[in-house]
Amino acid sequence: MITVEEHAPLRDLNTFGIPAFARYLVTIRTMDDLEELIHHPILRDHRYLILGGGSNILFTKDFDGLVIKSDLNGIEVQEQSDDMVNVRASSGENWHRLVLHCIDHNWGGIENLSLIPGTVGAAPIQNIGAYGVEVRQVIHSVEGVDLSTGSHRVLTLEECQFGYRDSIFKHALSKIFFISSITLRLTRKNHRLDTTYGAIREVLERKKISSPTLRDISDAVIEIRQSKLPDPAVIGNAGSFFKNPTVAGEVAESIRKEYPKIPTYPADHQQIKIPAGWLIEQCGWKGKTIGQVGVHPQQALVLVNYGNGTGEEILSLSKQIQESVREKFGIKLMSEVNII
Ligand code: FAD
Ligand code: EPU
Description:
binds flavin-adenine dinucleotide, Uridine Diphospho-n-acetylenolpyruvylglucosamine Reductase, domain 2, five-stranded antiparallel sheet, 24% helix, Uridine Diphospho-n-acetylenolpyruvylglucosamine Reductase, domain 3, 3 domains
């Protein structure tokens, strides 16, 4: 049975640690809870926001509506062969716990995505990615309910329309589709290990590991992440605040004339990806602090709340950064974080 909490504090429910409130909050713990919510008048009378672990959200004000939090739990094998296994995980599960569960069972495919904060249900929303791998590479299907109609739906990989930090859940199904579970297709043997990311290779070489296991890769990723990303339990943040922009080859080359050391990567559709962290650093923002908020000294793409910052202060800082990158390089940075 669901209970509707009123004037619910959100500070502990977002990794920026922003002290906002929700007019109403409902936690979904079972599929029966979800069914009850679908028929509850509160869903028709108020706007709503689906919340996972709050690690990719910036509250700039109180949310004058219903926050729906998934606490659906469970990880189960749906089917398996000698080579492959389909694993279904409920949306409220912690993502990194799922990664560790898969490594414990020697199921390969998400080890490079170790230590990404947040829940399983949010993973397909922006097609989480890190260290050479995106979750779309292992998604079999995504299950949930369209809250605007109450209809249950299972989306196939193709139907999810994944792109870099993008999916159908940010477009046609934006805000209305409550993901209840995802099914991953993972390897049971002949794992397709991805060690192409330079930093992973360096850690493995230093540890003299020539035939890495899933756990070796996971441990390397954890080590790299801990060395440069701030822990939200210590300093409020939501990871990369902006997406890495892609530009036409000519644009990248014209910047390279002035900045020969600009790092670039090939992207889809013959575009070139430029790390936003580099652009922000070139504009002099790295390590800057304005009041209680700032730009992380080790990773310029991460905006931080040093304690008592507000969502408006973070938003204002992000706009100043966007403006200076636009002025200096003519490139528009798009936020990755969901601004509420
Ligand atoms: P939330 O922040 O709660 O929500 C994010 C979005 O998903 C919102 O639009 C929300 O409405 C929606 N949503 C959440 N749950 C559901 C659901 N069940 N059904 C429908 N919609 C839902 N991301 C990466 O891709 N790669 C990284 O390497 C990475 N590193 C990070 C490092 C740090 C230190 C931090 C703080 C964040 C990082 N992130 C990274 C961003 C973040 O961890 C991911 O985007 C994560 O998937 C967000 O999960 P969440 O449960 O916290 O989602
Ligand atoms: N760089 C700088 N200065 C900085 C930060 C980065 O010059 O302050 C340059 C460096 O040249 C570095 C390059 O940017 O080589 C790339 O940096 P990094 O490897 O740290 O990755 P990123 O592009 O900044 C992306 C993702 C991260 C993900 C890492 C690892 C985006 C928006 N961010 O960051 O995802 O963990 O790659 O794969 O794509 C997130 O989405 O929240 C997130 C943390």
